[in-house]
Amino acid sequence: MKHHVAGRKLGRTSAHRTAMLANLAASLAIHGRIETTLPKAKELRSIADRLVTLGKSGTLAARRRALAMVRDHKAVQKAFAELAPRFGDRHGGYTRVLKLGYRHGDSAPMAMIEYIPAERKGSAEGEHAESKKAHAKKPARKAAPRATARKEAAPKARASKADKPMKKAASVPNVHKAQAKKSGRGD
């Protein structure tokens, strides 16, 4: 049974796995989004979120812990300077994983992991309520005058089928009978 065993092994030794996840976290912090396999992206989420949480703390001890975890000065600097203020009022869930399909070479499931964009000013619920109020205040459109104007503007009256004289059907020779006469078969 797999009780109290967290994390994926990803087919690597523990040292290789921690180094790989540290490099992925550094690349994600620097670039904002990276493309990798789905299991790696899911495993990277916790490290990337922990990096932002340490950045929000902003202390020297937190910076040293982040540097021990990621091992890249540029990534830690960006996490503390840009990412932490961006997610100042958010409590976790700083990343999202988007599935991209399967890799051509080995059919590995691919994914893109990225830090979510900064929220706009005001809460989402407040903006939603304001947009509802704006839609409620708008008067109903009057579509009837446009439709009648189009009908009145049409000067040509269409002739019905009964008014048109019927054309006589052109006599089309029966191809099968003509071919039968040529071949000598009589019907």
What are its keywords?
mainly alpha; three-stranded antiparallel β-sheet; 7 helices; 51% helix; elongated
Overall average residue pLDDT: 81
Principal-axis shape equals elongated
Number of DSSP strand runs: 3
Poorly predicted runs are none
Rg from Cα = 35 Å
N-C termini distance: 86 Å
Topology order in helix (H) and strand (E) letters: HEHHHEEHHH
How helix-rich are the residues, as a percent range? Answer: 40-55%
Secondary-structure-based class equals mainly alpha
Helix count? 7
Across the major sheet, the strand order is: 1-3-2
Major sheet size, sense and barrel closure: 3 strands, antiparallel
Strand content: 5-15%
What secondary-structure arrangement, pairings included, does this model have?
Elements: H1 14-31, E1 33-37, H2 38-57, H3 60-70, H4 73-86, E2 95-102, E3 109-115, H5 124-137, H6 144-153, H7 175-183
Antiparallel strand pairs: 1-3, 2-3
Helix pairs in contact: 1-2, 1-4, 2-3, 2-4, 3-4
Structure overview:
There is one protein chain. This protein is mostly helical and 187 residues long. It has 7 helices and 3 strands, in the order αβαααββααα. The chain has helices spanning 14-31, 38-57, 60-70, 73-86, 124-137, 144-153, 175-183, and strands spanning 33-37, 95-102, 109-115. Strands 1-3-2 form a 3-stranded antiparallel sheet. Helix 1 packs across helix 2 and helix 2 packs antiparallel against helix 3. The longest helix has 20 residues, at 38-57. The radius of gyration is 35 Å and the shape is elongated. The mean pLDDT is 81.
